[in-house]
Amino acid sequence: IINDGSTDNTRDIVLSYQDDRIRLVDNEHNMGLVDTLNKGIGLTETEYLARLDADDLWEETKLEKQISLLDSRPDVGLCGTSIHKFGLINGDMIFPIDNDGLKVGFLFYCMMSHPSVVYRMSMLRKTGLLYKKEAFPAEDYKMWIDILQVSQIYNIPEPLVMYRQHENQICQEKKEVQRTKTEEVQTELFLRFFPDATASDVDFYLHSYLDAKIESSNDYKQSTLWINRVLNANKRSQYANPYLLKGSLYKFLNANYKKYLYHKYFISSRSFKNYLRYICSLEWRFLPIKQQLKLFLNK
Asked: Can you tell me whether residue 102 is helix, strand or coil?
């Protein structure tokens, strides 16, 4: 347990436990999250390293399942799990399982949970990977895309972590800073797919496609042109599974186009007049049949 200059009675509570497995390390001053994480990596002598934030919870079998997976898969250097959010937001988040899924999934957001991970220390020692202070508060996101370059990652598709959602989380306190740092990580990843992307390609990815800025069928068409550029670039770079990439990019686009159509034609009412307006607009012709059925059934 690394006590990073806490001002409450954390140290006294830790010392109250008579347990030889507990090792308390006091930082001389508050070092901040990233330096403390890296200090923990440097102090670890075991083959596996798990981390947990103070306000989250593990299911009883979490570590057992992860260690079993890592013991059976020496190619896996990092093992996470899916999570169950509770507090302000409730529900399960099921993350992509392997590198193929994560390469594509990370284009959209950070599809791993920091309190779920277990590192293989031999992988970290061999690669010298550490958290990057300049990436804070997206240092975990940056770490995951770095590991994708040197090792296999596996997410157990069970919500074995109870991830607490509350108003004082860093993502709420420093929302703009986190957005900036997240975009830096996403840009780095995007350029692996599309090494010769222009500044406008990157800007469209971050501020049009991911922000779901669809206000007309023309916006949809612009997105499809951008997707085709990305898919062609990936054919050249061969960074990601082309079928998974195409499916994910279009799934995200079509879901947001469906939202646009719903708000334009049906948010006020599902009257015959509105259905007629929708049909006559011809904007429906871009939406796949499955999504059109969902739109008509209000799903």
From this structure: helix
Residue tagged 């370059």 (tokens)? 149
pLDDT surpassing 80 at residue 173: no
Phi-psi region of 100 (alpha: psi -120 to 50; beta: other; left: phi over 0): alpha
- CB distance 81 to 159 below 8 Å: yes
Q: Which of 55, 52, 156 is nearest to 98 (CA)?
A: 156
d(CA 75, CA 249): 29
SS3 for 177? helix
Q: Which residues contact 146 (CB under 8 A, 6 or more apart)?
A: 129
Model confidence band, residue 171 (pLDDT cutoffs 50, 70, 90): low
Report the distance separating Cα 223 and Cα 212, nearest Å.
10
* Residues 6 or more apart whose Cβ sits within 8 Å of residue 119: 41, 48, 49, 50, 77, 78
Residue 117, Ramachandran bin (φ over 0: left; ψ between -120 and 50: alpha; else beta):
beta
Say what percent of the chain tops pLDDT 90.
83
Q: Is 27 left (phi over 0), alpha (psi -120 to 50) or beta?
A: beta
The pTM (predicted TM-score) of the whole model is 0.92
- Cβ burial, residue 286 (10 Å; 0-12/13-18/19+): middle
